[in-house]
Amino acid sequence: MTAAGADARGKQARGLRTRARLIAATNQVVAEVGFANATTKAIAEAAGVAEGTIYRHFTDKHHLCLAAVLEANADLVDVVAQLPDRAGSAPVADVLGNALRTLASLRSQLLPIELSLLTQPALRASLTASAGDDTMEPVRAIADYIEREQALSRIRPTLDPGQTSLVLLSTLFGIAMLPGSDDRRHHERTVEEAIDVLVAGLVADR
Amino acid sequence: MTAAGADARGKQARGLRTRARLIAATNQVVAEVGFANATTKAIAEAAGVAEGTIYRHFTDKHHLCLAAVLEANADLVDVVAQLPDRAGSAPVADVLGNALRTLASLRSQLLPIELSLLTQPALRASLTASAGDDTMEPVRAIADYIEREQALSRIRPTLDPGQTSLVLLSTLFGIAMLPGSDDRRHHERTVEEAIDVLVAGLVADR
Amino acid sequence: MTAAGADARGKQARGLRTRARLIAATNQVVAEVGFANATTKAIAEAAGVAEGTIYRHFTDKHHLCLAAVLEANADLVDVVAQLPDRAGSAPVADVLGNALRTLASLRSQLLPIELSLLTQPALRASLTASAGDDTMEPVRAIADYIEREQALSRIRPTLDPGQTSLVLLSTLFGIAMLPGSDDRRHHERTVEEAIDVLVAGLVADR
Amino acid sequence: MTAAGADARGKQARGLRTRARLIAATNQVVAEVGFANATTKAIAEAAGVAEGTIYRHFTDKHHLCLAAVLEANADLVDVVAQLPDRAGSAPVADVLGNALRTLASLRSQLLPIELSLLTQPALRASLTASAGDDTMEPVRAIADYIEREQALSRIRPTLDPGQTSLVLLSTLFGIAMLPGSDDRRHHERTVEEAIDVLVAGLVADR
DNA sequence: GATGAATGAGTATTCATTCAT
DNA sequence: AATGAATGAATACTCATTCAT
After folding, report:
1. How far is Cα D168 from Cα C170, in angstroms, rounded to an integer?
2. Using CB atoms, which chains have 3+ pairs under 8 A with B?
3. B40 and B118: one domain?
4. DSSP for C105-169, written as a single string
5. pLDDT tens, position by position, C100-159
């Protein structure tokens, strides 16, 4: 038996692939038809497995959605991780602007499943319980970045880094929810406008 | 009052009161238990009527929610109606700041039922179809205000009024959705921070 | 509105009839296919109503079965109620024999649904909780009768009335469960044999 | 041991051990959680094998339970086997009393799995079909004993041995099912009372 | 207009059984 | 022989909607 074979023991290869497919299918279906209509039947179909298979991998729909949220969130975390270290490396408008641009596009993917958290208090509770820190990671990273730029006098010193970080992300979130957000062109222009206003608001010297 | 007189009205007094109670009950129930758990049974109970009565006044649950959204939205419309005429009457930070502050508090009330629109694509569609204009009224009013202030050179001329209006409202919406938005103190401080950044971004001269 | 009409208010006539039909259907279906196979679907069909109707009358299957057990038990209670007063009125073999004969036939009806209590600990618990006394009524009545006959020196004084009552009923229960209990003839002969042995055992003077 | 030698046996040692473990696990699990909750998953876990393994040894759950019942029944058969030969060797109260006492304790072990037969008509059918004789062995043995004691004039001659045997076993069965049968003390006293009444009923001369 | 009993399609979940490895 | 991932039919229960009163 090879090392690879040993790794596959317990969680066999096929099982892992199915699990991944289920998570992907959940994000896809929730995005397509909304959380309320994301039935286990629809998810199973999208994943190309039988309905019962869901329950070999997740104790219930609840936990499947949890896993889907965390999965979608992981990309977001990656993007913002290096942000603080970029402070001072280029104009705030460029560094923060690019980060927000990227986050905005990821947010769109994350949004549908994230919405379910707001609609379903129970889900929200167990997310903060089980994963806790990860979902707040973007907030922290951006706050860190703001703090460092403030130290370099490139962002207004009176702004509270934590609060301001929340404002930036809230705006992206709000925009992602706009009715016309499926019209890409228009959506991107709105994001640009938001970044313009927000960054200007951060660096304004008055 | 004769029977003939009552008939002539088309919508009798009792019927109107029941209708109003149903709308109020819907907003209340959705706010309390979330849209997913806002069953027709719960709404009927909260309104003090039988379940079947709902269908005397609304063709289905769908239209009941629609009416509830419009009702909740009406207050919002009132607040922003006079905003354009206030352009130039006081510093942007004051006029727009106050408007946004008020909108932020109203948004919180509106939020639960509004969320249902996002969760239920079908509802969203028929809202824009049937009511269309009213829900966009705040966007227009703020865009008007921005345009007038631009004419007075008190807001950056390069900003697109419509897009910028969307950005402002999106931020309020995003903040209303933040997990901790039930902690009033913290929530209000976040709103203040947002208004600070946004207004600064609007008026910044660079 | 008549008095009858007033009585029907709240629990309307149609509703009460449906409720009764559901209870009857439950006893019938359980008797036919066994508790494990007595699905809500089968019960609803037997009652001639839709499956969802069950839940207008009972919070869940659990409570429907509970009601069915109590209903079936009510007849048993009636039969034994007058037993104690018959002590001394005729030979033990006649009075007790007749009572046991009647109980045996009723037991057969009650048996299937009663079995569910043994199989489903949860059901058993809530039965003793909610109805408690009624199901023990037969045991008490027979114990009373035995005690009175002991006072008349017509039953062995060394026997414990409570324990002995349990033994008599256990035998009927055990017989009702015999594999061949659907062969009436044979079953009745077994009951006769049991009554013969048991009564002889009670009155034996040794 | 060569591979050829192992093959020649048809049923290999490992297979037999697994089979035995499955039967034991079935009796154990049914006793612990009741037949309704004795899933193949639970049984496989208790036996320390994979679920699929069950189907190497039994065509279905049905046949596994059948085997388990027969296994549990085997002990009962052993106990009663020598009973007929003890006729006349000691007072009926002693010989039969002891046998019934022993049977009562074994019955308690057998009961849970036996109950499943009553709950599942299909199982019951195939048991009488496939195993037939063995389960009736105790009835026959006791009937034999009664007949021999009748020949010795120590049991009432008018009693039908077969029917009476059924009555005796039914009583034990009924007592085993009493709600309080987990309270050992009380349960044993009830058994004693039953034996007292039954034996007295058998030997009574009237 | 109002009622509330009845409906039935739909939901998440379970579990005996199959099958590729 | 053994595994355990996958299956899919079946289950109890929900809920928007209809309809007789």
Report:
1. 11
2. A
3. no
4. HHHHHHHHHHHHHHH-HHHHHHHHHHTTHHHHHHHHHHHHHHHHHHHTT-S-TTS-HHHHHHHHH
5. 999 998 877 777 777 776 677 677 777 777 666 677 888 999 999 999 999 999 999 999
Quick one: how many helices (H) and strands (E) in chain B? 10, 0
Question: Both A151 and A93 in a single domain?
Answer: yes
**What is the domain extent for residue A16?**
11-57
Q: Please report, as a single letter, which amino acid is at residue B69.
A: V
Query: Which of C159, C166, C185, C191 would you mutate first to test chain D, the one with the most D CBs within 10 A?
Result: C166
CA pair distance A111, C86, nearest whole angstrom: 78
Contact A80, A138 (CB under 8 A): yes
Q: Is C174 on the interface with D (CB under 8 A)?
A: yes
- Phi-psi category of residue A153: left, alpha or beta, with phi > 0 → left and psi -120 to 50 → alpha: left
Residues B76 and B53 in one domain: no
The verdict on a CB contact (< 8 Å) between D202 and C199 is no
- Calpha distance C191→B86 (Å, rounded): 98
**B 132-161 residues with CB below 8 A of A?**
156, 159-160
Each of the 206 residues of chain A gets a pLDDT tens digit; together they read 333 333 334 567 788 899 999 999 999 998 888 788 899 999 999 999 999 999 999 999 989 998 998 888 888 888 899 999 999 999 999 999 999 999 998 877 777 777 766 667 677 777 777 666 577 888 999 999 999 999 999 999 999 999 999 999 999 989 988 876 667 888 999 999 999 999 999 998 75
